[in-house]
Amino acid sequence: QEQLVESGGGLVQTGGSLRLSCDTSGRLFNEYVVGWFRQTPGKQRELVASIRRGESPNYADSVKGRFTISRDTAKNTVYLQMNSLKSEDTAVYYCAAWLYGSSRYNYWGQGTQVTVSS
Question: How high is the pLDDT of residue 2?
Fold first, then answer.
């Protein structure tokens, strides 16, 4: 069973930064799209950013210019660098992996809480 393990969440003040990590297997890292989602209670899960080997990353409009998704090939890890954090970025953040042709993301991590306080 494939696994994705997130880490790096926490409490940060408005305007601060956090870096989330998503540790994956080599297969997921090299063959799948890896995306970062976030969810708050009562709201639909939102795709924040995604990346795949050899392709440009994609971002939600709400985070463009503030968040950066990247891949570390030595560690099979996908990062989400979050800068200029706002209170509305508060959410549980999940990483997930999607294989082209699938109707939905195939594998999910357990989530990590990010809280931005003013």
Answer: 86
